[in-house]
Input
Amino acid sequence: MDLVVSIYELTRGFPSQEQYGLISQMRRSSVSIPSNLAEGRRRSTRKDFLHFVFIAYASGAELETQLELSRRLGFCSNEQFDQTSQLLDSVMKMLNRLTLSLKA
Output
């Protein structure tokens, strides 16, 4: 959830012409991560949960790309990028560990 809040704060400073482009994509990707975890957790089987964790991980990968693109386009400062990137990296590591534990 902290990552979602960070993405919303980060994208507030993007150019208005990105409202339906990169802003929308980044916000949807970030919201998809906890949403898929919540949905998967409420499913009846471990296999179903694992499937939704994979989807969350894929959304994180999308967000990594979108975040890098926003940095290259100059839509965020290096400090904002670094802070959000570190948070995303932390989330991706947690998802990876969750995947491994569900496979065991």
Remarks:
- Residues 46-72 form the longest helix (27 residues).
- DSSP finds four helices and no strands in the chain.
